[in-house]
Amino acid sequence: MKPGMPRTGRRRLGLTAAALTAALALLAAPSQAAPSEAEIAQEGPADAQPSQTPLAQDVSGSGSAEAGDDPAADGATAPPASAVPEPVVQDLGPAVMSVNVRSATFGELADGTPVAYAVSNGNPATFTMVDVATGEALFSSEIENTTLGGWILVDEDGMVYFTARHPMSAGLFSFDPETQELTNLEERVAGELVLYSGSWGPDGRIYFGTYPNAKVVAFDPATGELQDYGTQTEDAAYVFSLGVVNGEIWAGTGPVPHLYAIDPATGERRELQPPEHVMANTQWFIGIDQRADTALIRLSPRGNYDTALLDLETGEWSEQIIPSVFGSSPTNLDADGRTYLFSEDVVTSYDTTTGELVPTGWAETDLPELLADQVGTYDMAVLELPGTEGETLVGLSTDGDLWTYHLSSGETTFTRAEIEPAPAEAHGLGVGPDGNAYIGAYLSSGSMTRVDSQSLELTPLRGPKQADAIATHGEELIVTSYPGAVVHAGDPEQDWEWGTNPRHVLTLERGEPHFQDRINGVVSIGDRVALGTVPDYGELGGALTLLDTETGDFEFHRNVVPDQSVISLAYADGLIYGGTSINGGLSSDPTADSAELFIWDVAAQEVLYSEALTDQAGYLAGLSWGADGQLVGATSDGVLFEFDPQEREVTWSVRLFEPDQGSHGGWGYSTKTIWDERTGTYLVTLNGSLYQVHRDSGEFDVVAEEMDQITRDGAGTIIGVDLTHAYRIDIDGEDVTCDETITGDHRGPLRLTEGVTCVDGATVRGPVTVSSGAGLVLTDSEVTGPLRAEGADVVHVLDSVVSGPVRVEGTREEVLLRGNTVRGPVQLTNSTTALAPLVSDNQVNGPLSCSGNDPAPVNAGLANEVSGPSTGQCADL
């Protein structure tokens, strides 16, 4: 099976109501691990304990839904499960392709060639050695079983050491630039998942921090031996930063901040106590670097990684704070004792001899504009380049652009390095007001993709480094991003320029005062958009925020369900329906037993209802509107449910898997539900698989064993993503096969008596008739006359213009009337198709009448514009 293609399967399963009730009664706490990190690793399971609140009512497997639960209106019945065609999954290719350099360093080969070493995140991650002067790749290799890079170090002999991970845990690698041998030295180093902030010690060993046990570990490249200095604190999971300062190992933790100085010989340590002006709104120490007699300590979340300064001779902390240094370390010193770093998106220098910040002139070059739409530059160095007098500042950006700035002359260069793009991990998925689907990426270099609703063509776009939720609010596309719970809004019909269109509207921020980090739930509530958030690292208590995207004004409500995150939202009639996760920010410990469904009154600003629907749900997500106006959602312990918003109780449910098979950690962002009235089924992504659930029987099929998210675009197409690829999911089954195709200009009547005739992009100058046993697929065409089909097998009229009446009678297999302009009446009668006839998104200049069809026609949520009366089975379409 080709990489990226989801495993598909057809397992028809069903539980009787009694069996489901019995299964829910046998509640036992599964064995679950603590949540792993999102930026720093990947979502994993989280602790959850069962509560005692059962489903309000369980109905599945036997078709025993109560009155009012009939999925088809006007006397029609849903097709039996056996009659519903098998969905077809079509691979559209990698969802997001990008170069994503988050880890780099610079060195020199034995012949004096300056090189950059880079790990580009992707699936898989890649390691590349690049000639700084030309951008040529001198070596490149995929790093198997990894998607994320970490620190990179070069020793005095030119040997390279680095870390990479996920799904591999805490991988440690070496690279010999002379032999070009890349070696995986060890995995799960010291029993940990992630290695942070590698630094050379005074004894020639590499020291680094770890997650999840906040260790300090030393590795001796000469012997291959490890020394574990143990867990540094019990109240923080990360030693995120580590640096060597005057021969001591300094280690910084998070999300509870401690700064330790450790004797590498004895392991003895002391804790430093930075002053209040340094610690204000600081939860993490994320970088520690000594430059001359100054220690530069990077802080988070304050600003955008501010840097504090400590005079190592006097022990005094400077009142000066270098603001917003992004994520890059200060460079090595130049000949004048200056180190270079970004501050508020501009390269500046810090003079270690005077303690002053000194402008560089970098802002007056072409580089700021060239780098403006990139995530940033994580690594820079001061080098003496061959053929160039004096020193040059060199950087490698997240997009893989090598740039240089000569410190004396101010001359610049900008070169695209030969770093191969790789599939990024698909993350956010949603539909904009233009009807196109949009895909975000996980910890990318600022990449998104548009999926055209007509052609299904994938177009790369600039975006945030991690788009969490994508939704429509009026005529605006909403994109939320991590970190800091950020909202952008824009008009997708206009030129796309990230930061301008879509524009920045809101950042709730990590840390004070809101402590929010991720926006997973988004729904338009009319004049405002509602946002559901996950809190900052180490925090419990998400929030519900109501935002006016025009003014930026917002209404903030934290802990609407105490100690739970708000992860999924739906809206109707002044009420917001929300699903929660018991899990808070990473490195927090849940206090709740089970996720809840809540109802928020927008006008009264209060919770009207909040209950757990199952006993073992780590999260309740995927809220949408399903059959008969019911709210539908799914829980991490395997239950798909319908909730009656009037009675406020569960009226129908199906168990898809046992509670101990679910992943209860994280925030359920990939759980999505879609009701398809043509087939009478729900599509749901849960626990990494795509299910099709037959509402009348409770039976279900596993459509794809690996499918993370789904959405329905404006053309009614189901778009899905797995880890790296995008898919079209044709719930109607295989496409119709054409026996004959007509294009161009056809003069005179068109009479079809046998086989299936496809009319594609044509003009038919005359009437069209389809006789018994024949079929018509009319697409992007114009008919200057009436269209009539009697007893046809198939009638598809799509995105076309018909200048005359349309009459379809007695069709046996399938009827699709979608996206057309009809200059005359439309009549649909006595069809007996397996799936409900689709009559949607048409402009009818005349009456629309339907009768005697079994099942009854549907519009799949896309209403028709009818200038005359709509009657019979089409009265509400």
Automatic annotation (TrEMBL):
Organism: Candidatus Ruania gallistercoris
Comp. bias (Low complexity): 31-42, 73-87
InterPro entries linked: Quinoprotein_ADH-like_sf, TAT_signal, WD40/YVTN_repeat-like_dom_sf
Top-level taxon: Bacteria
Signal peptide: 1-33
Transport recorded as keyword: no
Region of interest called Disordered, as start-end residue ranges on this chain: 31-87
Swiss-Prot/TrEMBL keywords: Signal
Protein name per the record: Uncharacterized protein
